[in-house]
């Protein structure tokens, strides 16, 4: 088997109007048009989608898992970013 | 199950892993964290998953063959539409699983080659022939029933992409089992001849279905490590027992007899006890000598070879269009 590899595409589906596109898997296809058709067949057999995005997998830039701490831990100490940090008497009520 | 051949092989010895990293990895597993493709993982964990997920994918793909044969022979349009949708789902499930395996660094082409060369295994169940229409019902009820039993705990597997693929598969697979049982129910209520056909299908599919869960726990060397890694949540025998407990009353509801003289209800434990599986037959079918092994592999090879020109043409077309676009861009600048 001396075949060329068929490119990989990541598939994003928007399920209902108003919801964001969500990653649901990947497909192999020679070009963008065929990737869209394959994504439709593989990921929307039961009316799951109203819109499909396909992105060449090689074009995705991902954060490095080993930098998880550096990237995300600083927010853990910033509890003043949450509404529950502030004390308001109950009778004032919420907006 | 769909990966029953895993249990039959011994773990290969690999280079020792860094003890500290191993401990940190196991701590993440114990804390029920999901392991994602770019995270550090022991080489043996990766290898086990590539084998398990790809065997599972191959099983879905080969699993289309015994049923595909009956699409053009379905007795009604309703049954034909259901069977067509089910077989299409199996193709889809195979693709979700191949995608999950690929996140571990193996290419689709390698996986396909492993299946077509006969190096990779798939579930032994698909090496049995589908002789009558009742077999289609029996496959839905028993084979998909057994698959659901196995796949529900896999939704909580420690490897994220596999668990997510399983959630999708489980959502879709319930219809497979139900259409099978409904079909058998209709046959059993129709005439004595049709009911006899269903009994014959049960006689042939019962034991191979029990074999789907793999070797007994006493002979399954891989189980302990897979359980520790939370790839597996229940042992082969635990899942097999669950399956028997669920299906025996369903067989009785259809008015059928399970082909096992030793089958008996144990009131004390609340479980159905059953006879010994023919493990020689199991080993034979896994090793490639079942009733349909050669036929299944030949069918896959033929499909792959006959489709080669389509893959080549699609790639050539994509390259040509990309080259034209590039040339037009240069001309415009």
UniProtKB/TrEMBL annotation, chain A:
What are the recorded GO MF terms, alphabetically?
A: phenylacetyl-CoA 1,2-epoxidase activity
List UniProt keywords, sorted A-Z: Oxidoreductase
Q: Name one Pfam family in it.
A: PaaB
Q: What is the protein name given in its UniProt record?
A: 1,2-phenylacetyl-CoA epoxidase subunit B
Q: What's its top-level EC category? A: oxidoreductase
EC number(s)? Answer: 1.14.13.149
Q: Write down the species.
A: Stappia taiwanensis
């Amino acid at each position: 088997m001396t075949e060329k590899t068929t490119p990989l595409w990541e598939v994003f589906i928007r399920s209902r109007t108003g919801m964001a596109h969500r990653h649901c898997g990947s497909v192999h296809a020679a070009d963008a048009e065929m990737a869209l058709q394959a994504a439709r067949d593989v990921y929307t057999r039961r009316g799951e989608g109203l819109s499909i995005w396909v992105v060449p997998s090689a074009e995705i830039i991902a954060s490095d898992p080993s930098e998880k701490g550096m990237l995300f831990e600083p927010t853990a100490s910033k509890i003043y970013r949450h509404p529950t940090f502030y004390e308001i008497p109950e009778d004032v009520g919420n907006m | 199950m769909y990966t029953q051949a895993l249990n039959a092989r011994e773990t290969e010895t690999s280079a020792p892993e860094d003890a500290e990293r191993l401990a940190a990895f196991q701590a993440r597993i114990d804390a029920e964290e999901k392991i994602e493709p770019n995270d550090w993982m022991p080489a043996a964990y990766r290898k086990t998953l590539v084998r398990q997920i790809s065997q599972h994918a191959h099983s879905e793909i080969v699993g289309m063959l015994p049923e595909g044969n009956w699409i053009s022979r379905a007795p009604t349009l309703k049954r034909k539409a259901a069977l067509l949708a089910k077989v299409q789902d199996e193709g889809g499930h195979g693709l979700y699983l191949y995608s999950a395996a690929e996140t571990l660094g193996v290419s689709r082409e390698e996986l396909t080659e492993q299946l077509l060369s006969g190096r990779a295994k798939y579930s032994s169940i698909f090496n049995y022939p589908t002789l009558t229409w009742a077999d289609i019902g029996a496959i839905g009820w028993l084979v998909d029933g057994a698959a659901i039993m196995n796949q529900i705990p896999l939704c909580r597997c420690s490897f994220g992409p596999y668990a997510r693929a399983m959630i999708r598969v489980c959502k879709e697979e319930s219809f497979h089992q139900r259409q099978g049982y409904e079909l058998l129910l209709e046959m059993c209520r129709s005439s004595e001849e049709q009911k006899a056909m269903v009994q014959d299908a049960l006689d042939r599919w019962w034991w191979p279905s029990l074999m789907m869960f793999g070797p007994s726990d006493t002979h399954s060397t891989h189980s302990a490590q897979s359980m520790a890694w939370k790839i597996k949540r229940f042992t082969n025998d635990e899942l097999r027992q669950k399956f028997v407990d669920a299906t025996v009353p369903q067989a009785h509801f259809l008015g059928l007899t399970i082909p096992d003289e030793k089958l008996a209800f144990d009131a004390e434990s609340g479980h159905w006890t059953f006879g010994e599986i023919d493990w020689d037959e199991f080993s034979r079918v896994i090793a490639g000598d079942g009733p349909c092994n050669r036929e299944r592999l030949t069918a896959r090879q033929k499909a792959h070879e006959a489709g080669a020109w389509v893959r080549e043409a699609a790639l050539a077309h994509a390259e040509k269009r990309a080259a034209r676009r590039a040339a037009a861009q240069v001309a415009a600048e």
